[in-house]
Amino acid sequence: MTMRNGRRWNHNIHYHPRILRAVPDGARRALDVGCGEGMLARELRQAVPHVTAIDLDAPSIGQAREHPDDVDYILGDFLTHPLEPASFDVVASVATLHHMDAATGLARMRDLLRPGGVLAVVGLARSTMPGDLPRDLAGVAVGTLHRALKGHWQHPSPTVWPPPVTYPQMRALAAEILPGSQYRRHLLLRYSITWRKPQE
């Protein structure tokens, strides 16, 4: 675990600002799905008064609870934990969907949003060869440069590799489950989905 200038960096943290920019004005309640040791949840708390963060990994939740903040950390399964439907202004998730059935996870996130609320996801998907090779090589090169300049923080949470869903499959799921969502593929081997739930 190395850091430069006291700041953590890795491929997931690199895209935290994308999540934070998606937070709608006046948001009161946010949910961080797959929060790990809570870094994104604490960043969300700077913008949103009430933040709930959930993860299945007990050691990660233990680390999160060591921080002096008022985030509500829950040890539990996001897919089955009794969270109130349509109760969050923001649902955020970074590098979590590939740990569960992606379609089920997206639908659950959608259902937990209030009308007008925003879903912001950054995730990993599986590359397909040979078509993705040039993009992946470019991503590795840029990621190596970032590591050299910023160091690399290895998160303590469990990993799943390779991701079960490909990038085109993820784009199709987003279009089906979240009509009108914005899907983008990013250089550092990630994709993002942003969606505002229609007002009823």
How is the secondary structure organized here?
Elements: H1 16-21, E1 29-33, H2 39-45, E2 50-55, H3 58-65, E3 72-75, E4 88-94, H4 102-112, E5 113-123, H5 133-150, H6 167-177, E6 182-186, E7 190-196
Parallel strand pairs: 1-2, 1-4, 2-3, 4-5
Antiparallel strand pairs: 5-7, 6-7
Helix pairs in contact: 4-6
What can you tell me about this protein's structure?
This protein has 200 residues and is α/β, with parallel strands linked by helices. The protein has a single domain (16-126, 157-194), classed as 3-Layer(aba) Sandwich (Rossmann fold). The protein contains 6 helices and 7 strands, in the order αβαβαββαβααββ. The protein has helices spanning 16-21, 39-45, 58-65, 102-112, 133-150, 167-177; strands spanning 29-33, 50-55, 72-75, 88-94, 113-123, 182-186, 190-196. The protein has a 7-stranded mixed beta sheet with strand order 3-2-1-4-5-7-6, with helices on both faces. Helix 3 (58-65) links the parallel strand 2 and strand 3 (72-75). It is globular. It starts with 15 loop residues before the first helix and ends with a strand.
